[in-house]
């Protein structure tokens, strides 16, 4: 007893009793929290009482600690225990509360915690000695008075409604006893701070008990809109009991005799026939059977069981007060209630509640509400008994009524929630919770039954082969059913649970579809260690996966969700963004990893494919937003995609710069016989493929690049792209000009420049986008360059040749000199053979250019040769060596020119054919001369 130093022995007695009773008070809410844990829902209960109780216990604990002394030990024990219990209650409430209730609880808890800290720190630093104890004690008195005064709202409600239905009588008795114990404890310990609030609590408790005793003796008639319900027949076996209609004089306004007829037969069977439903109740203590029938109006009879007493029937007779018998009667009755009429009555009551201006007075609930709630509860039990398949697979009239009833129950809950201490609100919360659990189970069952394809996407499959059949969707009927369930759950205040179920299951479905592509994540280390060739298959699979997401999965998921959440599009938009965000973020990791590598021109096209896929993802996300871009989740995801897209775009631009560097640094001196250089083919093929296949992508990339450099002009966007293209071609021209100097033969040099410039020009002309960017002026200049190279070639080659066919220098003494003619023909033949031998191995790949060149050469050479040989061939008539000087006929010259620039094999074949033909001609001529000689000498 050294620790418990109580000066008066009765103080110890009352302190211990106060501790015991207070423990009972603290344990009173345990059934409530058991129900909360079982249902995993707070069922409409509020956290404020428990937070305030926690604050009160902590404050009194602090008071007892700073006061000190043996008299405070019992205060310390009970308040320490109470603080722990209330803290557990608050934690349980937070775990199972809805998001809005959690938010509200945290606000209240933060406010009380702040206030508690302010009191503790303020009293510690600014008040000292006994004054500190008094200040904290009287603050506790004020708080306790507020707590004890809280039941005054219940007292007012009892007085106004003259009903004790919603008065927690056992708790009121416990609080009264608790206040009495601590009041006595305060008297004997002479602690005014303990005595004052408990005295007030004791008085208020006595008032509550008195009111309960007074109003419990009175019955209360509750009326509501009258409805006519179907006839119902109940056969009841009773012993020593009577069921009879009440005299019509006991029911005001009745103008019709009761239609109930009671007939007693063998074995004491009583057959009671009655019409209607529970529309009024009366509490009659002296009713031997506890049943009263009130005839309120014609065709409406009311029966209500009250004050069940011990049955005087024998053990072989059914007990009217047995719960199972009464439940059977209730279920049979409820199953025959006219759904349309009771729905109309509930709608009318909800409408009446909406017109009430004074929300401080709780409304009087008609018995229709109780009947309506019981009907829903009965339907829930019926649906829960179905263990296989989807309960609402084929929606019937009963299903439609059940869903409409949940909608009405939600509206009723909302309407009654505006009034304080509304009776039966907790029951409505409970039944609504059960209904929502049923609907949520149904919702999840439907969601799990998607028609998702399961086969793996083969590595060779093309993105075009994917269609809506690859999407895990649902039948039209199931989508309509889910739409109804979602609407009901959100109306009932279970938006979080609804969205959580949808998001959880749909995410799993989408993840399963993504796994079909067998795309494995690639880390930065893998990229560094791997060769680009080994990464290309991964890029191809990633592009297919990203395209499937943007063109199929995301699009169809959005359509599905917008149909299911058609009445709550804003809710779905946020849900959808959060649903695809994880997938999108995971997809973006791969291109982000690739972008770290050094940009190389040969990788351009893979990165352009990646950029296109990222842009399609951005479009798919943009089309999913129905809130004008105001959702934070949407903005964050859009920004994340945009950042990765810009990063890949910068890599593409750097690859173009790398291509420029490659062109500038190419110093290969290998000659290609005047043909199009491999560098020209590579660069122009590279550019052509990029602009033809990725035109829009390149535009988008360069537009973004211009914006990043704070250049907003649309002209600047086009000029920036065209400038890149022009720079690359000019660098190529400069490099080709350098490579042309490697050719010692000037003619071949011009052929080389002509070939390559013609190839560049034709490549640009064949691409509308490239031609538009380069402009017509550039095309005209490049065409002029090609013509100039052609003229230079002809001047360097064929003009020099035909100089030997001129008339100058042939005449000697007024006659053609045969010697000079021989030299001229021999020189021409030698030069032509050399030109043909050399240039026949050259290549002009452009067929149009080749044809133009041959025509132009023939136009220069053939007329001059034909004229020259026609004039001077007679000088060699009769000469046996004519073929030595006039080696080719004009037709032969044209034929040989036609064989120029076709490559070695073709030229050799044609040359051999011409030589063979010439040999045949020579042999034939000799044979004819021999025959002529033989004839002249008479041998033939």
Q: Helicity, in percent?
A: 55-70%
Uncertain runs: 1-5, 219-326, 454-466, 712-717, 905-912, 914-940
Chain-averaged pLDDT? 75
The number of helices is 32
Distance between the termini: 170 Å
What is the number of independent domains?
Answer: 6
Widest beta sheet: strand line-up: 1-3-2
Q: What is the fold-level CATH name, i.e. the topology of the largest domain?
A: Monooxygenase
Cα Rg: 52 Å
Strand proportion: under 5%
The CATH class of the largest domain turns out to be Mainly Alpha
Describe the protein's architecture and organization.
- The longest helix is centred in the C-terminal third of the chain and has 34 residues, at 632-665.
- It contains 32 helices and seven strands.
- A hairpin with a 2-residue loop joins strand 4 (291-297) and strand 5.
- The protein has a three-stranded antiparallel sheet, with no helix packed on it.
- Helix content is 67%, strand content 3%.
- The chain has six domains: 9-216, Monooxygenase; 232-322, no CATH class; 341-447, no CATH class; 465-650; 666-797, no CATH class; 806-914, Monooxygenase.
- It has helices at 9-27, 30-39, 48-67, 73-96, 99-126, 130-149, 152-161, 169-189, 192-216, 323-334, 339-354, 367-384, 397-416, 425-447, 476-491, 495-515, 524-529, 532-564, 569-594, 604-623, 632-665, 678-693, 695-708, 714-740, 746-766, 768-774, 776-802, 818-839, 847-872, 882-885, 890-897, 904-936; strands at residues 232-237, 263-264, 269-274, 291-297, 300-305, 811-812, 815-816.
- It has 940 residues and is mainly α.
- Helix 4 runs antiparallel to helix 5 and helix 21 runs parallel beside helix 24.
- Component of the exocyst complex.
- Belongs to the EXO70 family.
- Residues 245-266 are annotated as: Disordered.
